[in-house]
Write a structure and sequence with these properties.
Layout lengths: L4 E6 L2 E5 L2 H21 L5 H32 L4 E7 L2 E6 L6 H28 L4 H21 L7 H14 L2 H28 L3 H30 L15 E3 L4 H12 L3 E6 L2 E7 H5 L11 H4 L1 E2 L5 E2 L5 H11 L3 E6 L2 E7 H15 L2
Helix pairs in contact: 1-2, 2-3, 2-4, 3-4, 3-5, 5-6, 6-7
Length: 372
């Protein structure tokens, strides 16, 4: 999930907004200001209703953030780093670095979010009761209480990637002692839930409720894609759990001078040999890494006048991994920084590079051998 606006860090976890969040924030604020609050609270101006709508929307997404932080705190306590938390059109997502290693950890991480939402529901309900004599306070508090309760219940639907699906996976995992089987069961359940939402959306469309129908169908499509992706990722991670970077990395990486022009690089190496990564040297000492991806960012008219050294990624600033690093961890690093190649360093020396292409070749070869 791309982060378009960075909000800061909490517990050293980067928190940000995807651009789709602004759409749902605007829609929710408009819906509350023009529909819910005017029908619930009387005697206030239009500006007051818009103010209530905006504040309630902010508090709602604050609740979503608290929900994701609930997952994140428990993940950290179980030794699992959290890459980021992103708020987007369908709520929020906490991206953890790796899958839990035990069904117990999976259960604790999954259930923490809904519990957080239930606690917030009780808190806002209490505020609405205590502030019953002040409608300006009671109305948004009651709405937030109901919304957090619905958020908790919705997330406990037993299908991937919802929290209830992860609880289901934890239970099946515990009973079967088979994480892949548990993931498959939870993913199938998630797809059933997704198609149910799509079906409800289509029914709503034909019933004349256009906006609800579109919304339900979009949620269904999102859940279906996420469920299928979760299963594929878990299966891939399981199949590669014992594979290291050393087994997959490219070792025949040409060494080129930092003084070489980009045009010569293309004509002498890239086009004739389809070479895509290079170790850049100065006085026979490795100084950087150069890839075709870096080259593609430079306008072609500048190739004759720019050197490799001006474009390369210096080793002291580039992301690197060791040969013994688990391949799954290296893959996540590549995806996280959106890099094509990263350097493999052993005792201060560049011994190769690892890229998504290397991983794909390994997987294709493994697949062909397993079918024979």
């Amino acid at each position: 999930m791309d982060v378009n606006v960075k909000l800061g860090r909490f517990l050293n976890i980067p928190i940000g907004l995807n651009k789709s969040w602004f759409l749902i924030f605007a829609f929710l604020t408009w819906s509350l200001a023009s529909g819910y609050f005017p029908g619930t609270v009387s005697g206030y101006s239009t500006i007051s209703f818009w103010f209530l709508g905006a504040i309630s929307s902010i508090l709602f997404f604050g609740s979503v953030l608290a929900h994701e932080l609930g997952h994140s705190v428990i993940a950290l306590r179980n030794g699992i780093p959290v890459r980021s938390i992103t708020l987007f059109i369908f709520g929020g997502v906490a991206q953890i670095e790796r899958e839990p290693q035990t069904p117990g950890a999976e259960f604790r991480i999954a259930i923490a979010g809904p519990i957080t939402s239930l606690v917030l529901a009780v808190l806002f309900w209490t505020i609405s009761i205590l502030g019953a004599s002040t409608p300006f306070l009671a109305a948004p508090s009651l709405w937030l209480a109901r919304t957090n309760f619905i958020l908790a219940i919705f997330n406990m639907i037993p299908g991937f990637p919802l929290d209830g699906g992860r609880v289901l996976r934890a239970l099946v995992w515990k009973l079967s002692d088979n994480m892949i089987l548990a993931t498959k069961v939870a993913s199938i359940a998630g797809q059933i839930v997704a198609f149910s939402f799509i079906g409800l959306g289509i029914f709503s469309l034909f019933s004349g409720n256009f906006s609800n129908g579109i919304w339900l169908a979009l949620i269904g499509v999102f859940l279906n894609n996420a469920a299928a992706s979760s299963y594929s990722n878990a299966k891939l991670e399981h199949s590669l759990k014992d594979v290291t970077v050393e087994q997959v990395m490219s070792t025949r990486i040409p060494h080129i001078s930092s003084l070489m022009s980009l045009e010569r690089l293309v004509n002498d190496y890239v086009l004739p040999f389809n070479q895509r990564a290079f170790i850049v040297t100065e006085n026979n000492v490795a100084k950087g890494l150069m890839t075709v991806q870096d080259l593609s960012e430079i306008p072609r008219r500048k190739w004759p006048f720019m050197s490799v050294g001006q474009v390369m990624e210096p080793l002291d600033r580039s992301v690197e991994v060791a040969p013994g690093t688990k391949l799954v961890e290296a893959m996540k690093t590549i995806q996280q920084i959106n890099a094509h190649n990263i350097a493999v360093i052993n005792q201060g020396q560049v011994v190769g590079t690892i890229s998504q292409d290397d991983v794909n070749r390994y997987l294709n070869l493994k697949s062909k051998l397993s079918t024979r």
